[in-house]
Structures are given as structure tokens and as C-alpha cells.
From TrEMBL:
<protein>
    <submittedName>
        <fullName>Glutamate-1-semialdehyde 2,1-aminomutase</fullName>
    </submittedName>
</protein>
<keyword id="KW-0663">Pyridoxal phosphate</keyword>
<dbReference type="InterPro" id="IPR015421">
    <property type="entry name" value="PyrdxlP-dep_Trfase_major"/>
</dbReference>
<keyword id="KW-0413">Isomerase</keyword>
<dbReference type="Pfam" id="PF00202">
    <property type="entry name" value="Aminotran_3"/>
</dbReference>
<comment type="similarity">
    <text>Belongs to the class-III pyridoxal-phosphate-dependent aminotransferase family.</text>
</comment>
<dbReference type="InterPro" id="IPR015422">
    <property type="entry name" value="PyrdxlP-dep_Trfase_small"/>
</dbReference>
<dbReference type="InterPro" id="IPR015424">
    <property type="entry name" value="PyrdxlP-dep_Trfase"/>
</dbReference>
<dbReference type="GO" id="GO:0008483">
    <property type="term" value="F:transaminase activity"/>
</dbReference>
<dbReference type="GO" id="GO:0042286">
    <property type="term" value="F:glutamate-1-semialdehyde 2,1-aminomutase activity"/>
</dbReference>
<dbReference type="InterPro" id="IPR005814">
    <property type="entry name" value="Aminotrans_3"/>
</dbReference>
<dbReference type="GO" id="GO:0030170">
    <property type="term" value="F:pyridoxal phosphate binding"/>
</dbReference>
Length: 431
């Protein structure tokens, strides 16, 4: 309560905006995930690794637009190129001539044959399911507990340990019929996938996953788990879809490059476009060539608009270079070691996972291996830590099921400050 009253006293202008906002915007926000109790902060601007709220509070930002901004806020290279591009229109209605250059870069870097662009991760996963169904002529999808693939019905299905059912919609308004086509397996449990595949082998069109789960903390696949799924896909003829909306921009060639595997379809968004809306649906030629008139529908007014194309081009060619990944990895590794030292020093049950520029902490004796284990970690403690961090000017991560992300514009000093403030916040959480 002390922590919350400090939060309220520091964010009085946000509070006033919130009170106005809830009259016009449900929850006072434009995405449910931006809301937290008692009201969220409202931001004005960002620069590099920092953002400022309406009260003038400065925060070092490790949320980075839910992992969409590894280029950092107001990156000068992005500003420069996008400002130039704006002079030549932001939407042309026909195909922008430079789109092919971006498609080529993505094709080489991620080792995919063909690419289509949409604007959001949600659109990418939605189309991927349609393509997989068209290709296999089957309709059932397997997804994993705790994985998030955007806000459309087919994939907004998860488990709820409080409810005695194997799966439930994550939203009102999703019809029962939709549930029958989306099956839910347990992450890092190959048997759970095998069981579903075997029982409905003629119906499964695809397994879709976040290859490193980043909507339930940060939980990488265990050894041989991915291989097991690829083996099953060959035996039972379903497609493997990697939702790399987060991971795609977190290693130079995404998770598929890191684990050296070849999924049938990959989806990317967020960081690969330097903070602009652009998503990628990519995959093997014979699958992607199903897209077309009288075949698989794919469209979108803002698809591959010149601004997003230029922003992504600059991001991939000039900003998220191999050196940049090395830099982000070094900073993120420092954070990881910082948290491990804090856990030792304070003798608190705190575990850390990390993958490239991102990492996560859990108030737990064990590192969670799946969603149910994440839910068993000490989430109230995490909230105490979170609000203490906000009060001390750090946005550490967007939720107990999210993770930190380091940008190319963060500095060593900012990492050091994060660690110092985290020491106090973990100490408070321990009390
Ligand atoms: N897939 C993953 C793995 C995500 O993390 C997200 C967003 O958080 C999405 C898909 C949906 O992307 P968008 O919010 O751009 O629709």
C-alpha cells in the first residue's frame, strides 16, 4: 500500500487523464494490455532507452512497446529515412517499388522462399492458419498453453487452471464452435502434442508456437522438444508454424536461425520494422504460392505501405546488424547477472531466464518450464517488485508474463541503474 500511494502521488496527471479517458475509451486505453491497477501511466515521448510520462517522470524503458522497439525510441536513422519517405506519400495504393528489396533481405536473412506483408502480428497469425488449412485441407490447429498469437478468435484460446476444462476461450464472444478446432498442448511436453496428433491425425493442419515462449515470461524450448515436433510433423503431415512476432527480431536470424530448423511458415512483426506496423508471413514456395485470387485470400489497405517498408529496411540493414545483437546481448547478459547477484545477496527465491536481448525474473524456487508452472510462481511478489520499479523510474517489463528487452540505444549506465533499483525492489518484494 505504501508503494501504491507513492505511485499515485507521482502520477497525479495520469490519474486525471485516466478519469477522462474511461469516459471515452473502455478501461481508458486502446489495448487491454496497457491497463494496470489502479490506473496506467500516460506517456508523452521517448528518446533512446527512456520515456517520459505526463507528470514529467522519466523512466528507463525495458518494455519498448512490448518488444517492438529494439531500435530504441526516436532512433535518428529511423527518423531520417522515414521523414524523407513521408515526402513521397505514406500510402500509394499500388505496390511500392522498394517492397521487393525488403522481401529479398528477409528471404536471405531468415532463409525463407517467399514473403507477404501485413501490418500486425494478429493479421499474420490469422492468415497463416488460413494458409495451413488450405494447404493441408485439414482444419484443426494445435497451439500451446500460455502462448499468445494476437487477438483473433482461432488462437485466443488457452487453459485456465481455475476451470476444469482442457481449454477455454480467453475472451467473451468466442463461439463454442471455434474451440472445437483449436487444441491446446503443454509447452515442453512432447507427449501432450503427440497425444493430440495421434488421436486426430487426419484433422491436424498445423502446430503453431512461439519458438521461445515470450507471453508467459520467457521459456525456451527444452532440448529436443522442437526436433520432436518436426519429427511428428513429417510423420503426420501437418505444418509447423513459428510465430516469431517477438523472437524474429531478437536474434539476427530469429529463432529458426538460432535453432537451425526450417518451419513451413514463419510470422514476424514488432521489432523488425523499427517501431512501425509491419508484419511478415513467410515460408516455403509451394505453400506461399497458394496465396492468390480464387485461392487463399490475403489483403490489407496498409500492407507494405512505404513508411513501414522503409522503416523495416533501415532497421534490418543499418540498425539490427550482427554487431547490434552482440551489443544488446552484452547488456542483457549484464542484467541477467545483476539479477542473479541480487538473488544471492538477498537470499531470495528468484530465478532468471534470458534469450538474447530479453530476459525475465520469477519469484520462485524453480525456473518455470511451462504456463502452469509460471502461474505457480509468486505473482503478488512480482507486483510489489513491479510498482517499486515504476516508482524508481524503471519500466522493467510489461507484466508477470512478459520480459525485459534491451534496445541498441540503451547504455551501460542505464543497465547499471536498472540493477541498482532492482536490488531495492526485490528487497521490498521479499519483505
Ligand atoms: N504473436 C506474438 C508472439 C505476440 O507476442 C503478439 C503480440 O504481443 C502477437 C502475435 C500479436 O501481434 P499484434 O499485437 O501486432 O497484433
Amino acid at each position: 500500500t505504501d508503494i501504491l500511494s507513492e505511485y499515485v502521488s507521482k502520477t497525479q496527471k495520469s490519474k486525471i487523464i485516466f478519469e477522462e479517458a474511461i469516459k471515452y475509451l473502455p478501461l481508458g486505453v486502446s489495448s487491454n494490455y496497457r491497463f494496470f491497477d489502479p490506473y496506467p501511466i500516460y506517456l508523452v515521448k521517448g528518446n533512446g532507452g527512456r520515456v517520459w510520462d505526463v507528470d514529467g517522470n522519466e523512466y528507463i524503458d525495458f518494455i519498448l512497446g512490448f518488444g517492438a522497439l529494439e531500435v530504441g525510441h526516436a532512433n535518428p536513422k529511423i527518423i531520417n529515412e522515414v521523414t524523407k519517405a513521408l515526402q513521397d506519400s505514406s500510402i500509394l495504393g499500388f505496390e511500392y517499388y522498394k517492397t521487393v528489396e525488403l522481401a529479398k533481405i528477409i528471404s536471405k536473412r531468415y532463409n525463407v522462399d517467399m514473403v507477404r506483408f501485413s501490418s500486425t502480428g494478429t493479421e499474420a497469425t490469422m492468415h497463416a492458419i488460413r494458409i495451413a488449412r488450405a494447404y493441408t485441407k485439414r482444419k484443426k490447429i494445435i497451439k500451446f498453453e500460455g502462448h499468445y498469437h494476437g487477438s483473433h478468435d482461432q488462437l485466443l484460446i488457452n487453459i485456465n487452471p481455475m476451470v476444469q476444462k482442457d481449454r477455454v476461450p480467453s475472451s467473451l464472444g468466442i463461439p463454442e464452435e471455434t474451440l472445437s478446432n483449436t487444441l491446446v498442448a503443454e509447452w515442453n511436453n512432447l507427449e501432450s502434442v503427440e497425444k493430440l496428433v495421434k488421436s486426430q491425425s487426419n484433422d491436424i493442419c498445423c502446430v503453431i508456437m512461439e519458438p521461445v515462449a515470450m507471453n508467459m515470461g520467457l521459456i525456451p524450448p527444452e532440448k529436443d522438444f522442437l526436433k520432436g515436433i518436426f519429427d511428428l510433423s513429417k510423420e503426420y503431415n501437418f505444418l509447423v508454424i513459428f510465430d516469431e512476432v517477438k523472437t524474429g527480431g531478437k536474434m539476427y536470424s530469429g529463432a529458426l536461425g538460432y535453432y537451425n530448423v526450417k518451419p513451413d511458415i514463419i510470422l514476424m512483426a514488432k521489432s523488425i520494422a523499427g517501431g512501425f506496423p509491419l508484419s511478415v508471413i513467410a515460408g516455403k514456395r509451394e505453400i506461399m504460392e497458394l496465396i492468390g485470387p480464387n485461392k487463399v485470400a490475403h489483403g490489407g489497405t496498409f500492407n507494405a505501405n512505404p513508411i513501414s517498408v522503409i522503416a523495416s529496411y533501415v532497421t534490418l540493414t543499418q540498425i539490427l546488424t550482427e554487431n547490434a545483437f552482440y551489443y544488446m546481448e552484452t547488456l542483457s547478459d549484464r542484467l541477467e547477472r545483476g539479477y542473479r547477484d541480487i538473488a544471492d545477496d538477498l537470499d531470495v527465491d528468484l530465478k532468471v531466464t534470458r534469450w538474447g536481448p530479453s530476459g525475465m525474473i520469477y519469484f520462485s524456487k524453480e525456473v518455470p518450464r511451462n504456463y502452469k508452472e509460471l502461474l505457480k510462481t509468486d505473482i503478488p511478489r512480482w507486483f510489489t517488485y513491479f510498482y517499486s520499479m515504476l516508482n524508481s523510474g524503471i519500466l522493467p517489463m510489461a507484466g508477470f508474463n512478459e520480459q525485459w528487452t534491451v534496445s541498441v540505444m540503451h547504455t551501460k549506465e542505464e543497465i547499471q541503474k536498472h540493477i541498482e533499483k532492482a536490488y531495492d525492489a526485490v528487497k521490498k518484494a521479499k519483505e
